[in-house]
Amino acid sequence: MHYRPFVATDWQRAVMVPSWIRWLPCSFAFLTVVPDQERFRRSAWSMLPWDKPVWCDPGSVDDWVVQAQRYHPRREADHAELHARDHYDRVVRVRAARVELFTEMCLRRGLPVPHTLDELLACLVGFGLFEMDGEWLLPRLDQNPVDVLPLVGEEVVNEHRAQQDDRTVLVAITVRELAEHSRPRWRRRLVETDIGALAGALRMPVEEIRRALTQLGEIAGLVVEPAPAVAQDRVRITVTWPAFARLFPFDDLPAPEHAV
Predict the structure, then answer these.
(1) pLDDT tens-digit profile of 155-174?
(2) Which end of the chain is more exposed for a tag (fewer CB within 10 A), N or C?
(3) 154-258: which CATH architecture?
């Protein structure tokens, strides 16, 4: 089960550091949609499922097998089952690691480990990601996890590295979205844009866009002309298609277990 935030008319996504998606439980998605970037009454969230578990339930492996076999010929049923079981095991392992890590952060900060969405909001208030004054809430999700979480030693270095990877994925998603609307070509798509526009849209420094495009060239075969390191403004980006789209099918930065 994937949690999808409820988006009402005139509501908006809270300004936030995208990397919180890696750290916080799945139901956090509900709390990223707000009626106002400033203060608002908690009653505005009256429709939220406050008693729901904070973590997505992957369901049973048997359900995964049945679903996988439904899309394969009967002669490939055994192969589909092996693939489904392997995929399920990887998702469950990643999920378990996320639960353990978030639990550790709560314990280090001396906060109760949340089990419901209602408890998660209280937990985020404890971390300083929301301010609560009676019925009034103020989102403060624009803070960096490095500045908020009780990370120690190499954990800080690892988080900085993970955030670079997050930004690379966000650039890739944006390039894919642009490529989807470009003229189809044989096994490739061509995108013309400028680095400054990408930086503005993604709220990233220009140098981060250059770094991400360079990394995508290394891991996904993306070609940028002129090269990101020397490009001043307009760039031409070529991606293999549909292979690039399959690598980055998401609309937003996904939680790790949903990206497996």
Answers:
(1) 999 999 999 999 999 999 99
(2) N
(3) Orthogonal Bundle (1.10)
